[in-house]
Amino acid sequence: MTTLSTKVIPYANEPFTNFALEDNVKAMQAAIAKVKGELGREYPLYIGAEKVMTEAKITSINPGNVDEVIGYVSKADQALAEKAMNTALETFESWKRVPARERAEYLFKAAALMRERKHEFSALMILESGKNYVEADVDTAEAIDFIEFYAREMIRLSGINETQPLVRIPGENNQISYIPLGVGVVIPPWNFPLAICVGMTVSAVVSGNTVLLKPASTTPVIAHKFVALMEEVGLPAGVINFIPGSGAEVGDYLTTHPKTRFISFTGSKEIGLRINRLAADVAPGQIWIKRVIAEMGGKDGIVVDETADLEAAAVAIVASAFGFQGQKCSAGSRAIIVESVYDEVVEKVVAYTNRLQSGLPELNFAAGPVIDKASYERILDYIEVGKSEGTVLIGGGKAEGNGYYIQPTVFGNVSGKARLMQEEIFGPVLAIAKAKDWKEAIAMYNDTEFGLTGSYFSTDEDRIAEALETVHCGNLYINRKCTGALVGVHPFGGFNMSGTDSKAGGYDYLMLLTQAKLTSRKV
């Protein structure tokens, strides 16, 4: 395998594609046409070297055009999940002995191939998840970032004694090494169906673990494309086992399995808490405490005081609220504005929101569909609730299209205790509240069970210093939007009910997937 030197090629974030250039638009259109020619295929499970086609299938559809089937993905049951577990256990015994640098080389090669095929991966996401060109491109770039970053991190971690030596004492040779945990269950979300799926999986794999990957049922085809890529680069069979299936059947079974060593999960608070509860029970034959790495969403907000650049604040509020239809755990679904500038900011927010046109993601409309019928109906229900909790400033209903389209919706004069301000909606709905001053605005921001991302807009350095100290969230941004974390730049993870604060894309993340072993030898 060709070696890529981390010294010669230092880590850098993957550049985003500039779709203001016509050539880049044409390249994406060509990729979409290519992917459309492959729609409707059937996809197998991966259990070791065996590709298993099952009679039961998950049907993946285009949320922007519900008559279009993306693919039919084989569906695992408990028997196949057990077979995959046994395969992963067997593979772990050899994979854990592969040197860290050699494991990292598989990732470097995968990143290079994904970079070559970037538009193909993005095009599939456009069709399967309803992302527009920019959102899909950023997702693919983040996937590449995760692969590159974690590969380098594993090499660094494996050489920790050389870079951070232990205290020396006469007569002993002491070393610490980070060894893998075992078999992990990886349960990624549908909203970043490539980036988060890839990041959760490769971080576990490069650490020396083997995994059972159970992708989201709404976006299993893009997950399969990633697994097929890892097979192509020569990753040994059984390191990644691809087992789409029901959460209630396969997910719960593997979470409670005595041989499961860890569960990596990104999704809703409710399912995250269920996984945490199930994993806490010790099954017969289990000899460890299972580790749970959970990112469970948020009710993120942007605070604006009267000293802020109000134009920049309004742009950030709209981008944070409506990027990918608000279907991000980092989405700024709340805006809390000091009353002296409330009307001015609200006017600007409504004007920018009014520019967002709804339509097919493959035609690169700014506002696309939400992911599925269940989300569609739930979000519309929240909009009806909002009509009794605030004032509809724009939107407020369905949008046209043969899919799950909802108008970008803004509510004004919403109480901080309202459901719109407290509950995660995960859709294109923004609630705006008024605060008497900046201190009350921060208090209103903190009045939530979540704590993932937040933004504070101000030009007063004393207030900014206070915000940095008191705004309680895992990722706090000053004078910028609250979405768009970059791997290695903005390690991502939240407080409270937002999860276990497992900083994805950060320098301590792989420690969650390894255990430190000290060896001490008398000399």
TrEMBL record:
EC number: 1.2.1.88
Keywords associated with the record: NAD, Oxidoreductase
Domain Aldehyde dehydrogenase: 56-517
GO molecular function: L-glutamate gamma-semialdehyde dehydrogenase activity
Reactions accelerated catalytically: L-glutamate 5-semialdehyde + NAD(+) + H2O = L-glutamate + NADH + 2 H(+)
Gene3D superfamilies documented for this protein: Aldehyde Dehydrogenase, Chain A, domain 1, Aldehyde Dehydrogenase, Chain A, domain 2
Pathway: Amino-acid degradation; L-proline degradation into L-glutamate; L-glutamate from L-proline: step 2/2
Broad class of enzyme this protein falls into: oxidoreductase
InterPro entries, per the entry: Ald_DH/histidinol_DH, Ald_DH_C, Ald_DH_CS_CYS, Ald_DH_N, Aldehyde_DH_dom, Proline_metab_enzyme, RocA
Protein's UniProt name: L-glutamate gamma-semialdehyde dehydrogenase
